[in-house]
UniProtKB/TrEMBL annotation:
Coiled-coil blocks: 572-599
Keyword Coiled coil annotated: yes
Database matches in SUPFAM superfamilies: ATPase domain of HSP90 chaperone/DNA topoisomerase II/histidine kinase, Periplasmic binding protein-like II, PYP-like sensor domain (PAS domain)
Name by which UniProt lists this protein: Histidine kinase
MF-aspect GO terms: phosphorelay sensor kinase activity; protein dimerization activity
Keywords: Coiled coil, Kinase, Transferase, Two-component regulatory system
């Protein structure tokens, strides 16, 4: 109830405020000049942007109306201007400013002048000053001096905010605690987690109306007030002049009344109504005691009646349950799918359910009184009495067997018979349960036929067919079946390989045991398909190559099957090994030819550089001597000599380019310097920005690896220039563990890295072959529109790492 009092008071204040705004007399119009008056006549409505924050602007859903200090202020001002407002509400200042930039607002009250806002608004003079107040517990009337506070006394305030920026820059001695809201700052103050809190006057006037903050008081002012202004469109200077004149005409007394009405710094008082609540509590206590005595008496009588009623209901429910159970048992027996017979000691039927009569083809009730020998001629009286004694004594356990029962039409029906002893009242019976097993026999025959067909097919397959089976989870697997082809493939009969200590694992070559065990254990642990290739040893000691393929199949409840075949792939494997060996020799030949080619290039480069360079140097000296000897003596000779000097300079440059193309001399300075030189040369030639990163200290590599990496980089940059349409390229060389890694990335159009047509991508094939010759790996990642990344990894030898 006490918590409702501040809210009721706030609602009354809002209603009184609106009544003041609507009922107050109109302002006397300021002295507008003709131009301003003409502008107002052309604009009879103005769009006012409201930042929905209490107490400045809020919307009452129940009354469907706006209220707040800014609402009342703008209502009075627009009345004085003679125009009508069009209210536009915004949840945040960012959205209000965005609407202003789109030209959707004319006025916005309650804003502070900022350098950024001056580019968008025209501001009026301040109409209200809202200070930032320091709040603490009620400990007297002494004010707080911020200069005298030490770092042991913390201050909580909302961050980010202008107040936080002001305090942190002006008072570096303060210990500021950042919180998300003013309410959180006051709650920290109540929990004694901070000494003071900083809240602006408008927000504080709302929070102090809540009972939980009644023990707080204002102890100071930080000296940073908020100067509230009315912002108008920057492209309408006349509107700004009109707003300024109207504000000047507004009496200061009305602004102060507006502040007192919407920002009263008062505390909720509940002590006035304490006597009323005490009297009301005493009256309610007396009435409650009388009602309690009456209730206890009526409750006692009610309990006695309920106890009697519950006992009666329980007895009735027990009878109903017993009757329902009896009816349900009789119904279950009569309509069971299993035939049930009650047979006396003299082998005559005393009861037969509906399932038995239907199963054997008898009319209802005609089986009762018949001897069992009519159903099974071999079951004479002596045989029956022998079964009776066995079942009754319980010595040999339950009796169950399968017979062909004689039906009413003379046919035979295969049934499964189960006997159980029953004593009912003073009589004894054997209960005979009959189950039709026609479908089971049919399924068994079909299974036997299927197994025979499977064995026939497995025997004709040119390989060893097997089945691995695991009956229970976490149990070892066993070979449930191995075809007779095992004799032809490995020389051992199927029975021997199916032993627990043998299996296919005993045939695997010792060098391939590890891979075999890993592949099989992985398939068994993950209940997945099994695939393995390796060598096996036959009974006569020959080594054969085998390929095992098995498909996993789950039968539920942890049971798994693996059906597979062991193929003899010795001939194919030999061809594959020979092909791999041939490819290896071809790769070695290619590497040798590439090495010879690089050596030849280096030799030619040296000869071109040294011999042609010497000849060109001599020629340049001879030309210079001619120029000194015959200068200005023969007409036209000076021009010819100058032309010869230019040609010699071009030849010098051509010799350098040819030598560099054959083998760049920068390679002698190390692969890092060569890569950086090549990238900068590419950047200068293509005008594509390149970022290159190479380590400072790299181990000295062999000449073959350095040249190989350099040629791969050249081919990669050539592909970027020809195909990528890239805007930038990144080249990164790093040493990771014992590998040298070269990354080349571009932001071009990319491509699909699938198989390429014959005759395409010789550059990629060449790079792949160079990497393989270096004993490294090449990875290319690319997607259309997402660029391409090339990664080359080359392992360094121990000598190179030393």
């Amino acid at each position: 109830m006490h918590r409702l009092l501040p809210r009721i008071a706030l609602a009354l204040l809002a209603c009184l405020g609106l009544a003041w705004a609507e009922g107050a007399p109109l302002l006397v119009h300021p002295a507008f000049n003709p131009q301003q008056q003409a502008w107002l006549e052309q604009h009879r409505e103005l769009r006012v942007g409201l930042l929905m924050r209490a107490p400045w602007a809020q919307y009452d859903l129940r009354q469907q109306r706006l209220s707040g200090a800014n609402i009342e202020l703008m209502t009075r001002l627009l009345q004085g201007m003679g125009v009508k407002p069009v209210w536009l509400r915004f949840p945040s200042q960012a959205k209000l400013e965005a609407a202003a930039r789109r030209g959707e607002l004319d006025l916005a009250p309650g804003l502070q002048q900022t350098p950024k806002g001056l580019r968008q608004w025209l501001y009026s003079d301040p109409y209200m000053r809202v200070p930032h107040l320091i709040v603490g517990e009620q400990r007297g009337n002494s004010a707080v001096d911020l200069d005298r506070l030490d770092r042991t006394e913390s201050i909580a305030l909302r961050t980010p905010s202008p107040a936080a920026d002001y305090l942190s820059s002006t008072y570096p001695n303060l210990q500021l605690q950042a919180v998300g809201s003013e309410r959180s700052a006051l709650q920290r103050l109540l929990r004694q987690q901070t000494r003071y809190a900083v809240v602006d006057e408008a927000r504080l006037s709302l929070l102090l109306r809540e009972p939980q903050f009644a023990g707080l008081s204002i102890v100071g002012d930080i000296g940073l007030p908020q100067l509230l202004r009315i912002a108008s469109r920057r492209d309408e200077p006349l509107l700004a002049e009109i707003v300024e004149l109207t504000l000047q005409a507004l009496p200061a007394r009305e602004v102060e009344q507006l502040r007192e009405r919407w920002m009263p710094l008062k505390y909720p008082q509940v002590s006035d109504s304490l006597a009323f609540w005490r009297g009301l509590s005493l009256l309610l206590l007396i009435a409650g005691l009388g009602a309690t005595a009456t209730t206890l008496h009526l409750r006692q009588q009610r309990r006695e009646l309920e106890s009697q009623l519950l006992n009666s209901r329980y007895e009735l429910s027990q009878r109903e349950v017993a009757e329902q159970a009896l009816h349900l048992s009789q119904f279950s027996i009569d309509h069971s799918t299993v035939g049930i017979l009650w047979v006396n000691w003299d082998s005559h039927v005393r009861y037969a359910n509906h399932a038995t009569e239907t199963m054997l083809g008898y009319a209802p009730g005609t089986l009762v009184g018949r001897p069992l020998r009519e159903l099974e001629p071999s079951l004479d009286m002596d045989s029956w009495l022998n079964l009776w004694r066995k079942v009754r004594s319980h010595d040999e356990g339950p009796q169950s067997f399968e017979i062909d029962c004689l039906c009413a039409d003379g046919s035979r029906l295969p049934v499964d018979v189960s006997l159980s002893f029953l004593r009912f009242r003073d009589a004894e019976y054997l209960v005979v349960f009959l189950t039709d097993v026609t479908e089971r026999r049919r399924a068994s025959a079909a299974l036997q036929e299927s197994e025979a067909r499977f064995k026939g097919i497995a025997g004709s397959v040119p390989g060893l067919v097997f089945r691995l089976e695991r009956t229970v989870a976490e149990q070892p697997v066993v070979f449930a079946y191995i075809s007779e082809a095992s004799v032809e493939l490995v020389g051992y009969p199927a029975e021997e390989l199916q032993r627990a200590d043998r299996g296919i694992r005993s045939l695997v070559h010792p060098d391939d045991q590890l891979s075999y065990r890993f592949s099989q254990d992985t398939a068994l642990a993950g209940n997945s398909d099994w695939s393995w290739q390796g060598r096996i040893i036959t009974r006569d000691g020959r080594v054969r190559w085998a390929d095992i393929k098995a498909t996993a199949r789950s039968l539920g409840e942890g049971r798994m099957l693996w059906d597979g075949i062991v193929w003899d792939i010795t001939e194919n494997k030999q061809v594959e090994l020979e092909l791999a060996e041939s490819r290896g020799r071809l790769r070695e030949l290619s590497a040798h030819l590439e090495s010879v080619r690089e050596e030849e290039k280096a030799r030619i480069a040296r000869e071109v550089h040294d011999e042609l360079g010497q000849v060109l140097t001599v020629l340049k000296l001879e030309t210079a001597m001619c120029e000194l000897a015959f200068a200005n003596q023969v007409a036209g000779l000076d021009e010819r000599l100058e032309s010869m000097k230019r040609l010699i300079a071009q030849l010098f440059q051509l010799v350098r380019d040819v030598a560099t193309a054959l083998r760049p001399p920068i390679l002698d300075a190390g692969i890092a310097s060569a890569i950086e030189w090549q990238v900068r040369r590419f950047e200068a030639r293509t005008q594509i920005p390149c970022l290159v990163e190479v380590p400072d200290n790299l181990p000295k590599m062999s000449d073959a690896k350095a040249i190989g990496l350099f040629r791969i980089l050249q081919e990669a940059l050539t592909n970027v220039m020809r195909h990528a349409d890239a805007h930038s390229v990144q080249v990164h060389l790093s040493l990771e563990d014992d590998e040298l890694c070269l990354h080349v990335s571009d932001d071009g159009k990319g491509f699909i890295t699938g198989p390429r047509k014959i005759g395409q991508s010789f550059g990629l094939v060449g790079m792949q072959e160079r990497v393989l010759m270096l004993g490294g790996s090449l990875q290319i990642d690319s997607l259309p529109g997402e660029g391409t990344t090339l990664c080359v990894r080359v392992a360094l030898s121990e000598e190179e790492m030393a």
